[in-house]
């Protein structure tokens, strides 16, 4: 059973930085596309970034140039480095794992990121 455990959320002032981590266990890491999503109060969950096992990344327009997603295949962990944070980045951030070529889809428990103005 795939398990995803996020860490690294917290409270930061606008313009600051945070680094989120997501530890993957329970299956073969390399056959999953990993992603970060976020959900703000009263809004739908939205894609932030994804990374393939070949470390190709994709970002939402709202975070391009500020956020960087990376993947360490030796540690089965993905990271989201968030710089130049804005109050509108405030949300619960969720780690996601999608098994390539299937409909299997797993979520972490989420970690709160709050950016004060």
Describe, in plain words, how this protein is organized in 3D:
With 117 residues, the chain is mostly beta strands. The chain has no helices and eleven strands. The strands form two sheets. Strands 2, 4, 5, 6, 9, 10 and 11 form a seven-stranded mixed beta sheet that branches. The protein is globular. The termini are far apart. The model has no long low-confidence stretch (mean pLDDT 96).
Enumerate how many helices there are, as a single number. Answer: 0
Q: Roughly what percent helix?
A: under 10%
Strand content: over 45%
Derived structural class? mainly beta
The major sheet is characterized as: 7 strands, mixed
The shape, in one word, is globular
> What is the H-and-E element order?
EEEEEEEEEEE
pLDDT averaged residue by residue: 96
Distance between the termini: 40 Å
Low-confidence stretches: none
How many strand elements? 11
Gyration radius, to the nearest Å?
13 Å
